[in-house]
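FW: tagging you since you asked about this chain on Friday. Here's the raw sequence from the shared folder, copied in full. Didn't touch anything.
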Amino acid sequence: MKKTAIVPSLNLPDSWGSRLGLVLAMAGNAVGFGNFLRFPVQAVQNGGGAFIIPYLVSLVLLGLPLLLIEWSTGRYGGTYGYHSTPFILKKMGKKQIWMYVGVFGIFSNIAIASYYCYMESWTMSYVYHSVVGTFNGMNQHQVASFFNGYLDVTVSTTGLPYEAIVFFLLCLALNTWILSKGLSGGIEKAAKIGVPLLIIFGVFLAIKGITLKAGTNGAMFDGLKGLNFLWTPQFTSLTNPKVWLAAAGQIFFTLSVGMGCVHAYSSYVGKNDDIACNSMSAGFMNEFVEIVLGSSIIIPIAIGYFGIDRVIELTNLGGLGLGFRTMPFLFSQWGPTMSALAGVAFFGLLFFAGITSSLAMGTPVMGFFQDEFKWKKGYAALGFGVSILIFGIPTVLFFQEGVFDQYDYWGGTVALFVFAMLESIMFAWVFGLDKGWEEITRGADIRLPIAFKYILKYVTPVILIIVFFGSLIRPANDDWSKLSFSGWSLHNESILGQIRHQGIGPNKAYFAHQFLSEVEGTVQGVMLENQRNYLNILQPNGNTTSYLIKDGFNVSVQPNQPIKIGTPLFTGKVINNVFYADFARILLLSLFALICVMVYAAYHKRKLNNDFN
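HL: got it, structure written out here
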């Protein structure tokens, strides 16, 4: 393999210090919370070991081709002095419309970082609580209650007022400071520290997970039982389109494609430097972390203590439920010292996975500010930090009202698919695959199979179009046989279903004088938790739903009273979650429109100065 020097051209405001730093930064960009919290849950819910089949198919047909597209697109734009997707795509596609398609490559990063930095701040707090032994002696319910209390900004778990906001600001300040140091002085150094530590922590926890023995430290089953369960294939799941959609979605999450981060990082690579080998190296490092380490921690340890049925139930809470509401309790079974070490390793691992990703999200935004408004690195980093503060505070203040989920769905899921679909079409059919393939292979240290050339042109764009429109019109119960020209019922999670607030429940008005029950069951009564009162409803399936009794609310039901969906629970001045959902959407639309205006202004400034390369 030849040695490539990553040297900035005269018009580059920044550069990578080494090839290793670039690969580690790219790998850190890809490795995130999803590797450890989302992937194992997706595998359990979608056929266990059989999930790896559509997952690997999606990797070959979607993930790797998109990595090649984005690495080559970024390097191509960088040779002309462009370091963010609006003007990179404008240069490749020639038409102005592609400039506005490139807006997704800035929008998604701000939208995702606005809630991602909040998640990072949780890990900082949990590292602290692991060290001081906060979780020692707590039962599972108390650990879950601790997380619920942490998300309520009015509750303090350390005695520090507004603790969640303080940790969020600390995390945001750290991101901004590292970004202000630039690529080689900030991001690359963080990646060289964070990625190796992440892997070391992951290996430690994976060994603890798979060597867990029944009867030791309260474990009921061997850790290998959990690993065996996770990877035992249920081949009948392969006929379900939902499983294939889930696999394609996981590839997007895990490789961080469709965001604009890869474009920005590779725009600082020299014109003739390798991107084929570098992109594959970063991609396969991410896959190692996800498949080998990600599958060997949460599920084996949880099944070791709870058994398979309970863990399947817990996966319905998602990866966050398992990670933050459950793992500290399981670690506490190992004794105070090992509990502290495991907690620091697990939440430290998540922190490094998170911050190396959020730093990548800041790079295209900084590149845009530097290219178009000639801001220095410090001011560009501050501009990113202030943007995240403005759009991130609502996710902190109104997390339990669903603002976080709206950001994640529209900014972190739909926008990625739309951008990836359009950029793949542009690369193969507008820019031209012959030029694109020459860009991919120039300076390559490995020989790519020629099959990828045809996958890039005929397979990847078609699959992305199918996945997008499948998500748009997804039928209820994933019963695709119901599709017909006369119409069909939409799945609540379909894009059209989400737009219509389908499945929102009986509380459809923004403002009301009473709150209606969203579940049926029996009233258990009022419980004091984290200094707040909650009304508990026991559902027929045995699960309990808790509703916060806010100040000024009057409870309308009695203990042991049977209730149905739509039964009034409280009276008072009610602001329903549908209001916060539309509030979040308006914020995201405003962000997208603002970036479009800034891109329009930058375009006309360049046009006036005849400053197009």
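FW: Strands lie at 511-516, 521-529, 532-538, 544-548, 554-555, 562-563, 568-575.
HL: agreed, and The chain has 23 helices and seven strands.
FW: great, closing this out.
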